[in-house]
Amino acid sequence: MARSRTVCQPPTVGGTLRELRKDLHLMTARVESCIDQQRRSHSGDTRFVARDRMIALIILDEAERLSTSALEHRRDMFDRTPLGLRLIGMPGIDKRLARCPQLYSRVGFAHPSRPLQGDARTFVLTRHGRKLGLALDSADLTDTQAMAAISRITNGHVRLLHSLFVQIERILRINELHVITEDVVEGSPQHTRYWRHLALKIARH
């Protein structure tokens, strides 16, 4: 936390502005408290010291859930504090932000998230594997087949990759397995069709 100095907040569906403000304040306070404890444990100084702002960036995932008033509140926060602000949303969110000229004029850049290909996809897959305590090796036949199945099902979409690995972790834990195989990735025919449907739906956007 001290290295990233970042708070990521996924807004709730239909949440009020009051709830959003309360949640962000609570999450920010928790992160700052953790960073402060880390600093104190390394410095050995338990005296109270006035703290600088320890959060540098706020990331709002699924930003399409935010109401116009909530977006305006985030814009005001951006103007009044040194905090950076990053919005992550589904395709079309840029058009919605364009209807909020005061916020849209402060957008530094918009980066469309394209499907992962080649080395980038291999890099993300191996990192997800390490989080599960597994080393995916492109030179290993079993790992290569599993990676190919993951790529085929998700079409390289980052969000689907993350969600699929959550399911893979669950299957590994339930079955007490220690290797990601093609069968683990495929799960059931219904499961596979579901992920492919999502990938095709997103690709059409």
Keywords:
205 residues; mainly alpha; 2 domains; three-stranded parallel β-sheet; globular
Can you describe what's shown?
The chain is mainly α and 205 residues long. It folds into two domains: 6-104, no CATH class; 118-204, no CATH class. The chain is built from nine helices and three strands. The chain has helices at 17-43, 68-80, 93-97, 101-104, 118-131, 141-154, 158-175, 182-186, 189-204, and strands spanning 6-9, 57-60, 84-87. It has a three-stranded parallel β-sheet with strand order 1-2-3, with helices on one face. β2, α2 (68-80) and β3 (84-87) form a beta-alpha-beta unit. The longest helix has 27 residues, at 17-43. It is globular, with a radius of gyration of 21 Å. The model has no long low-confidence stretch (mean pLDDT 80).
Quick overview:
This protein is 57% helix and 6% strand. The protein has 205 residues and is mainly alpha-helical. The protein has two domains: 6-104, no CATH class; 118-204, no CATH class.
